[in-house]
Specification:
Elements: H1 20-29, E1 44-45, H2 57-63, H3 74-87, E2 91-95, H4 98-109, E3 115-118, H5 123-131, E4 135-138, H6 159-167, E5 172-178, H7 191-204, E6 208-211, H8 215-225, H9 234-244, E7 247-251, H10 252-255, E8 262-266, H11 269-282, H12 293-305, H13 309-328, E9 341-345, H14 346-349, H15 359-371, E10 373-374, E11 376-378, H16 380-383, E12 385-386, E13 392-394, E14 400-404, H17 412-427, E15 434-439, H18 445-448, E16 450-454
Parallel strand pairs: 1-10, 3-4, 3-5, 5-6, 6-7
Antiparallel strand pairs: 2-8, 7-8, 9-14, 11-14, 12-13, 15-16
Amino acid sequence: MPLMEPYRIKAVEPIPITTREHRERALAAAGYNPFNLSAADVTIDLLSDSGTGALSADQQAAGLRGDESYAGARSFFRFREVVEELTGYPHLFPVHQGRAAERILFNALLKPGQLSVSNTHFDTTRANVELVGAVALDLPCAEAKDLDSYSPFKGDIDLEALQRVLSGPDEVGLVIMTITNNGGGGQPVSMANLEAVARLTREHGVPFFLDAARFAENAWLVTQREPGYADRTPRQVAQEAFALADGCVASLKKDGIVHMGGLLAMRDPELAKRCELLLIATEGFRTYGGLSGRDLEMLAQGLVEVTDPAYLRSRAEQTAYLAELIADVGVDSVRPAGVHALYLNAGRLLPHIPPSRFPGHALAQEMYLAGGIRCAELGSLYLGELDESGELITPAPYELVRMAIPRRVYTKSHLEYVAETLGEIAKRPERVPGYRLVEVPALLRHFNCRLEPVLN
């Protein structure tokens, strides 16, 4: 069946079409950091899938029913009804976005010096662990190290390594599994792996949480790849995954398909009380958590729509289509393709640029210069160990570029434009310069750093 979106477009927004000269000026003014660019200077924006999706007609209609009462709003109870049906967690709090849930949970649960163990912590998750004095430890599975492998669940955690850590001398305060594994190439986590993690954490008395920002996309890939799940619906798989854990944090700007919102939910009533105090002090009352009633209504509707198999099939096919297009023009990406993003192998495309000059960042900058396409590096700029002057000490294991695809926003022709732009770069990759840091923030440097090109 041909690739076709399972929806009609009822509103359109013009996108900027700029010249290379304009983009050169804009990128220089931004310090060669895509986060500093104005959206008015971007033609195709693949920087993030967080809060960048299009709302459905039913979500917009739901927003009009928003109850803006300060406490006990009707919209909260609608939100709670949907979340309880989906997750089964009795204690839940809306928050303005996922990093707020992380901050509250980690402050209530983790102690200085404890380990937070994950398949891969993403950037804000790691930062919030470190801000409370704990240590973030990633244990990706062995298959994740082969970017070209078609192993179906490269987002899994290394179970043998997890067992050693849980049995070791260091105190583990939390195990948190990211589904799908964004920092590991957008790869899914199998139900078998989640079941094993649940068993190990119960044996050792360690809390087990999900970072469930893309729970529905993970569930879809389970139905497509894991034996025994082909006849299950994505919603049934998601419910089973939530049932294995003690709770979750989630940026619902992803699989809630909204522009703002998040969730913190759990089983433990005592932990919930500690979290509630932090929520009220920093986010808002427990029934709104920094969100409007309009937001809560649209979130509830989005959490219903996101597990629709037709929607998930279309989204996965869109990503797979782009993966094949860019392979055809000679650019490799992490395989198999996930759902929310493609991860380009910049290290392979730009072998003349050493890790110390950030080949992933270099490719992302060239994509903007060549076609106005904004995306983000996941390589040594983001993950490498740097000294105080910004020089690389230990490189990241891979030099990747993440192209995150907003939900229900871009069409087939937009994806073809992205692939054509990459194809032009791939014809003369040696012309792409490396970059060096000139301003290096102490935390989450990729958001605020400034760089300059280094001519070969």
